Amino acid sequence: xxxxxFEHMExxxxxxxxxxxxxxxxxxxxxxxxxxxxxxxxxxxxxGTLNYGHNNPEIKKALIDYLSEDNIIHGLDFWTxxxxxxxxxxxEIILKPRGLDxxxxxxxxxxxxxxxxxxxxxxxxxxRHNIVTFTxxxxxxxxxxxxxxxxxxxxxATGVPTIGASFLPYDGYLGDHTNTLDYFEKLxxxxxxxxxxxxxxxVETVQGEGGINVCHTDWLKRLERICRAHDILLIIDDIQxxxxxxxxxxxxxxxxxxxxxxTNSKSLSGLGLPFSxxxxxxxxxxxxxxxxxxxxxxxxxxxTTAAAALRTYWxxxxxxxxxxxxxxxxxxxxxxxxxxxSEQGIDASERGRGxxxxxxxxxxxxxxxxxxxxxxxxxxxxxSGHDGEVVKxxxxxxxxxxxxxxxxEILETSTKEALTDIT
Length: 423
Ligand code: PLP
Prior knowledge:
The chain has 423 residues and is of the alpha/beta class. The chain contains 14 helices and 17 strands. The strands form four sheets. It has a seven-stranded mixed β-sheet with strand order 4-12-11-10-7-5-6. A four-stranded mixed β-sheet has the order 1-2-3-15.
């Protein structure tokens, strides 16, 4: 396989190609093929961008039809038929049935653009600068979003201080017996606590990059109550956990909370095209025209595929039930793998929600050995967490039962092989 050109030309900043150093050519649903014709099952799926699988036929057909009719491909933020079709689908299929009355903003196309827009909006609405965020949170790497991201590696790469955010302990950060929101409430009620009253709180309901840390639904409900009581906006970053990943379209549906602002990206376009949105309670739309600008605000091809994804998968609850069923299969197998690892004297546990799941194996070194073995055995799977200690499953939600069971088999075998190498 010819890889020299990448090593010669591509910046050191590249990441995933280090874990999976082959040249991929084609992909279909949960399967990737490399240049040598070798197939892999994809448990990474664009880090949660391919919830509906690679080259999903219904979604791709909508794009091919759109392209073949000379429809608008780029139109700044013009009104287009593609945009109208998407917004109608969003309102009719997703928002109205859930009783949500949001307006939508299309910022630049990546997740971090949506987070930047969301926190700037919160600041503008409340006239305060501070944003509360949580340990192990990941919200993107542009300056504003990065200030709310915990990981030191990313923060250090800016070369200047990141400002405007205060970190609080996420649910479970101080162990099972401490409710970390007691601390938040205490800080808010104490004029001498040093916490600037925030404009907003940004939170993931399941921390994806942070290690599949799941907050309890009661914790999230209480966070919502605290925000309401103190006139603080609740921003849910659903960029990784949204679009069905946890078994509901929005991950906060499990807790029955209504965020003031929501960010979506990754799987929103349905086909892996860059696309993001910010949903905001109607009365929060205080932007002046053009005040948050950008050339690529709303991508017509992505409007088309995103509308197709909503129409194909979200008209009723059958897809949600499928995600929950497959999520249970993954959870059971992950739990049995974790038990086996613990029996070898290494503390391990399974956690997650829906099809966003991981096995915490304690150290990044062990997790890397497992994922390397898995890749040799035909499974693309990554790690997350502060030390990369969680082997993480983000496979397409559309994965077939056969591929899912084969992938779980590969993961179990690879874990056993990796641990035999170590012990
Ligand atoms: N927010 C969350 C929860 C994420 O998981 C990510 C990316 O992993 C981002 C924001 C940033 O998205 P992007 O990488 O598209 O900028």
